[in-house]
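**Folding the chain**
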Amino acid sequence: MTKMAKPAHLLILALAACLLGGCGATSREEKPPVAAAPSTPVAKPAKRVTDRPANTDGQVFVIEYHKIAKEEARWDRSIDRYKKDLQKLYDLGFRPVTLTEYVEDRMVLPPGASPIVFTFDDSHISQFRFLEDGSIDPDCAVGIWLDFAKIHPDFPVKASFYVLPPTPWGQKDSVEKKFSMLKEWGCEVGSHSVTHANLAKLDDEGVRRELADSIDFVASHGFECKTIALPYGISPKNASLLEGFERGGKRYGFSGALLVGANPAPSPKSAKFNPMRIPRIQCIDGEFGLDYWLDQLAKGNVRPYVAP
């Protein structure tokens, strides 16, 4: 029996369906969607540290330490007081910068924060000490600060150390390791002369020798020596030597010089700013010490630098 042909109207419907559907080809609507380009994450604005309004003309606290000891003394800060200094400064919205960052007006701070410049003179072993097992002494200045920074990572070990040759921080076999660690943390190392001489009592050649040899010493340990803590806070009679001189075919000089006391320093933007005469606040008890100036800050008698 012969198979019957499909009715003509069925053939027409099938042909139309084939044309509309693409005869097996994927229609535009059925094509796999093109993956969207990943969006660039939007950086969150830095959290404001204090509610103090921005004030880049305000004063800067440059603080001065020598020894860290069990008991408080004229040139010694007790371990307990040093720990309290760190906590108080953190709570008041201070964040550490180096002296060179301050002098060169390139301090990087979160909004509402005020800069604090930690300076350590004389490279005493109590500032940076290794124990016999190779660990950092938790009671030295660096060790105490490292422990504090574990809890407060936005207050890292970042200070300016003013060293004396030939063995800063004692422990001859560990000198290179200490320099290397300070560099890794972003600290600064500067000059404190070679013999802690009163520069005003030396002739020009004596001053040049003290300064050039100290700069070369710091450079030999991997740091560019840009600043000096003047011994006793006393400038040479020829103060221009601090800014630059020639010796042995080389050029030497500093971009900043520290005094010994006794008040907050002007903003680097201020007309009063003199980089060769930067005052410091000594970390001692009593008048014009750190606590005195923090009290003045609380009373509104000091207008600090505040990052926008």
